[in-house]
């Protein structure tokens, strides 16, 4: 359909029907390929150590870089999506992922593996995953919540299938040929991207969406020109560049929200701290089991058990958290899931028998499904939706930093002590402390909010929402009931 025809019908509406369900299927496959892939790296941990004569710390940098780039490349992905569209970015990500894994099969040192399978594959996975999630917002309106929930099952499918496939290929043809095959598998992201054809909108809506992009960058220049300044004046150009840089940071990295919104500040700090220990079981569980006499196939099966249970537990957790009882209280449910994740690690310390490790994986997967289902929902609760994308950008970058540092630092501790139990001690410490910090801090913030509301007896309808932040500027004190109340809980 041409743009003229689309304008004649108002807007082309393929949403919630027809091809939209094919796009959803592609999104499920994308999440299985991109988010599921890092979970299988633990299967190759011992082989990579022997191949490159690397320590635990050196080897663990590989999965850390993959996950950190996968999460931290969000702002760059957002810029590319805005410039080139979701379809192009998904296909670009597929090419980068495939190229990274094919190149990694020829690596002669662990540092080369960091660049190829770590940086290049991680960045490609980031592009494919985040652009694939973004396109669902265009194809689904009425069923958007259902579409996101169904798409997230791809993560669990990836967790289930990748380790089993990895162990089979590793036994049959070694890690180099396996990585070569993985390159071909990840190229299927390009096929998923080809399915995500862009939606044609009416010409009026296109012109309206283009206007806001022109305004911010030009206002400062227009103000200077009205005062007689030359558009090519060095000072004006420098001022314009600074203004544009500030606007980009403001859009993709919400430092102002971090400073002003206590709920967002607490949650971001808590999750960032939590990520220091969150990935440790995924990286070290397989080598820990192998070191304690578990067969390699059974050890790889442990990760698949976590993914299989997640397939069923994640939707159930999402339904439970959506109940009205938890409205405004999802942060406490999230903190409980983090606490359970941390406490479950002590099971591995007690025993390394295969039956005990299965019990550990069951409990861990229940806690992990709660964290996965609630992490972005809680962020929506504490941040206004019109600033959610920029708040998410800062959130993902900060958590990617600790995601990057956690496994190598723990690997260094294991190298020094020669004791894998410290992996689970470390993980428990970070997760339990993060859970207590978030739960107690939000409880104190809630009590403070209630006291503030109670002190304002002249207000007829105090806010029913939690984690609300009312403007405390001097102007508001001179006015009768404040006209605007900034609610950070939806």
Walk me through what this model shows.
The chain is an all-alpha fold and 490 residues long. The protein has 20 helices and no strands. The radius of gyration is 24 Å and the shape is globular. It starts with a helix and ends in a 13-residue tail after the last helix. The N terminus and C terminus are likely disordered.
Describe the structure in brief.
With 490 residues, the chain is an all-alpha fold.
- Give the uncertain stretches in residue-range form: 1-12, 202-229, 463-490
Record field, number of beta strands: 0
Put simply, the count of helices is 20
Mean pLDDT over the residues? 79
Largest sheet: none
Helix content: over 70%
Write the element-wise H/E pattern from the N-terminal end onward.
HHHHHHHHHHHHHHHHHHHH
Identify the overall geometry: globular
Rg to the nearest angstrom?
24 Å
Helix/strand class:
mainly alpha
Please give the alpha-carbon distance between the first and last residues. Answer: 38 Å
Oligomer: single chain
Tell me the β content: under 5%
């Amino acid at each position: 359909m041409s743009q003229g025809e689309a304008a004649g019908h108002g807007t082309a509406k393929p949403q919630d029907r027809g091809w939209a369900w094919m796009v959803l299927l592609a999104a499920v496959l994308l999440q299985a390929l991109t988010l599921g892939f890092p979970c299988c790296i633990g299967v190759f941990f011992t082989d990579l150590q022997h191949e490159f004569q690397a320590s635990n710390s050196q080897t663990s940098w590989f999965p850390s870089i993959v996950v950190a780039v996968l999460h931290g490349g969000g702002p760059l992905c957002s810029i590319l999506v805005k410039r080139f569209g979701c379809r192009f970015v998904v296909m670009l990500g597929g090419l980068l992922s495939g190229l990274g894994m094919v190149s990694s099969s020829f690596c002669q040192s662990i540092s080369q593996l960091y660049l190829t399978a770590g940086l290049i594959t991680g960045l490609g996975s980031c592009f494919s995953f985040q652009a694939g999630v973004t396109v669902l917002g265009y194809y689904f309106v009425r069923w958007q919540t259902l579409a996101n929930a169904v798409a997230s099952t791809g993560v669990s499918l990836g967790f289930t299938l990748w380790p089993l496939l990895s162990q089979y290929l590793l036994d049959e043809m070694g890690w180099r040929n396996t990585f070569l095959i993985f390159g071909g598998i990840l190229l299927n992201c390009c096929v998923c991207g080809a399915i995500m054809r862009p939606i044609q909108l009416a010409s009026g809506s296109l012109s309206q969406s283009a206007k806001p992009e022109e305004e911010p960058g030009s206002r400062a220049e227009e103000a200077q020109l009205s005062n007689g300044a030359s558009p090519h004046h060095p000072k004006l150009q420098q001022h314009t560049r600074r203004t544009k840089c500030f606007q980009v940071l403001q859009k993709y990295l919400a430092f102002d929200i971090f400073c002003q919104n206590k709920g967002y500040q607490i949650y971001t700090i808590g999750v960032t701290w939590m990520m220091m220990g969150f990935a440790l079981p995924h990286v070290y569980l397989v080598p820990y089991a192998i070191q304690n006499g578990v067969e390699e196939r059974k050890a790889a099966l442990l990760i698949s058990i976590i993914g299989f249970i997640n397939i069923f537990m994640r939707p159930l957790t999402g339904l439970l958290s959506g109940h009205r009882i938890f409205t405004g209280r999802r942060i406490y449910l999230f903190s409980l899931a983090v606490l359970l994740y941390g406490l479950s690690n002590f099971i591995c310390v007690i025993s390394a028998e295969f039956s005990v490790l299965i019990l550990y994986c069951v409990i861990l997967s229940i806690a992990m499904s709660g964290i996965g289902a609630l992490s972005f929902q809680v962020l929506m609760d504490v941040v206004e939706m019109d600033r959610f994308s920029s708040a998410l950008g800062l959130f993902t970058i900060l958590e990617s930093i600790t995601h990057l540092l956690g496994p190598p630092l723990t690997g260094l501790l294991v190298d020094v002590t020669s004791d894998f139990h410290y992996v689970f001690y470390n993980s428990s410490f970070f997760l339990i402390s993060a859970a207590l910090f978030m739960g107690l801090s939000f409880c104190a913030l809630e009590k403070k909010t209630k006291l503030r509301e109670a002190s304002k007896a002249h207000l007829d309808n105090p806010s029913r929402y939690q984690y609300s932040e009312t403007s405390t500027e001097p102007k508001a004190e001179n006015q009768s009931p404040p006209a605007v109340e900034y609610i950070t809980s939806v």
